[in-house]
């Protein structure tokens, strides 16, 4: 299931508006399913700035280690503290409790240029 109210990247990240000009970022159900059981997450600290497409962390699973990319340029304003002790939340609730970081975009309009649910669904249907 691909939530209709989010924006997506071709690298399987999602963005959800937080209502205060920031966006929560996570990886999609498709991505977590492909990775398998997630055992560790490395994320940046609040205040770190990233360019669109820049590596902002890693997700380590029993199968592999995968980079997480910044969907848009911006500053990290929060990191999900629950993941430090429970990285498996990404598997069990990728669009909810398994969020990774909150990001304040440099250019909020850049979010609109990302994939919508229909386009992301077409990408992953292959």
TrEMBL record:
Residues 22-104 form the Lipoyl-binding domain. Its cofactor is (R)-lipoate. GO terms for biological process: glycine decarboxylation via glycine cleavage system; protein lipoylation. One of its GO terms (cellular component) is cytoplasm. Coiled coil: none annotated. Binds 1 lipoyl cofactor covalently. The modification N6-lipoyllysine is found at residue 63. Transmembrane segments: none annotated. Keywords: Lipoyl. The glycine cleavage system catalyzes the degradation of glycine. The H protein shuttles the methylamine group of glycine from the P protein to the T protein. The glycine cleavage system is composed of four proteins: P, T, L and H. HAMAP family: GcvH. Belongs to the GcvH family. This is Glycine cleavage system H protein. The gene is gcvH.
